[in-house]
TrEMBL record:
Source organism phylogeny: Eukaryota, Viridiplantae, Streptophyta, Embryophyta, Tracheophyta
Superkingdom: Eukaryota
Protein name: Uncharacterized protein
PANTHER family recorded: HALOACID DEHALOGENASE-LIKE HYDROLASE, OS01G0973000 PROTEIN
Record-linked InterPro entries: HAD-like_sf (IPR036412), HAD-SF_hydro_IA (IPR006439), HAD_sf (IPR023214), Pyr-5-nucltdase (IPR010237)
């Protein structure tokens, strides 16, 4: 940050005591091909398991994602019934995780930061675990806040004859007066309720936490609840994002304050250790 030609330290980074990382397209890059495979699997699930017409599956998939944060949350909102574990095993369980490459550079960066680190993903626990293992960073985090954290149980099935599907595509083109978009029972980013719930579960103070996420709407939502935000996957900073990083590999150059504070803490630890050792010898 340049102010009157002088470098000004980012206070929000200096007081930070927790780093929260999105998983997909943040901890591993978008060009891994996993995002495209996930999208294809979701469309197949919609067509083969929920009876959505193939010709509209792509449009509906994208529309629900935009409206509800995830296509899954949107499918539930408009009335489709399915078991959450069944959905996840179909969408994520069949992915080729070898497309995600081990990332020793990222591992070193994470390990060099003695600050609390957690993953916050809309994905399910098994997906997060497999992706983190492939990256070789599964032991770099205190915990993972995932789909199951916020949505512990699948709803009981409803008899097929009682199913009513809200035609959201028609509604968005010709909104009926007085008819509102249905709400989803699924909690996920970027919903404010989901974000606050995730922070509560993990005992995180938003005022001293940085969110790293490739989704701008997640970044915007995080900013609104007081978090410091880093948009990942682009170097172009948008309003609402405090920083933007092409890749997490650039963290140290872009956010040196994080290391500075960590090193200061390390100095304090070392000096108190020295005092203890001295007093023992004396
Ligand atoms: Mg993401």
């Amino acid at each position: 940050m340049e102010l009157d030609g002088k470098y000004s330290k980012d206070q929000s980074l200096l007081k930070c005591d927790c780093l929260l990382f999105d998983l997909d397209d943040t901890l591993y890059p978008f060009n891994s091909g996993i995002a495209a495979d996930i999208m294809k699997n979701i469309q197949d699930y919609m067509v083969h398991k929920l009876g959505v017409q193939e010709s509209i599956s792509l449009e509906l998939c994208v529309l629900l994602y935009k409206q509800y944060g995830t296509t899954m949350a949107g499918l539930r909102a408009v009335g489709y019934q399915f078991d959450y574990d069944d959905y996840h095993s179909f969408v994520h369980g069949r992915l080729s995780y070898d497309k995600i490459k081990p990332d020793p550079v990222l591992r070193n960066i994470l390990l060099s930061l003695p600050i609390r680190k957690l993953v916050f993903t809309n994905g399910d626990r098994a997906h997060a675990s497999r992706a983190l293992k492939r990256l070789g960073i599964e032991d770099c985090f205190e915990g993972v806040v995932c789909f199951e954290t916020l949505n512990p149980t699948s709803p009981p099935p409803i008899p097929a004859e009682e199913l009513q599907i809200f035609d959201i595509m028609k509604h968005l083109v010709h909104p009926q007066p007085g008819v509102e978009l249905p709400k989803s029972p699924i909690l996920c980013k970027p919903s404010r309720v989901a974000m606050l719930q995730a922070l509560k579960v993990a005992s995180i103070n938003p005022q001293t936490t940085i969110l790293f996420d490739d989704s701008f709407r997640n970044i915007e939502a995080a900013k609104q609840i007081g978090m410091c935000t880093v948009l990942v996957g682009t170097s172009e900073r948008k309003k609402g994002a405090d920083h933007a990083l092409e890749s997490l590999h650039n963290m140290k150059e872009a956010l040196p304050e994080l290391w500075e504070e960590a090193e200061k803490d390390e100095d304090v630890r070392n000096s108190s250790k020295a005092r203890i050792e001295t007093s023992v010898i004396a």
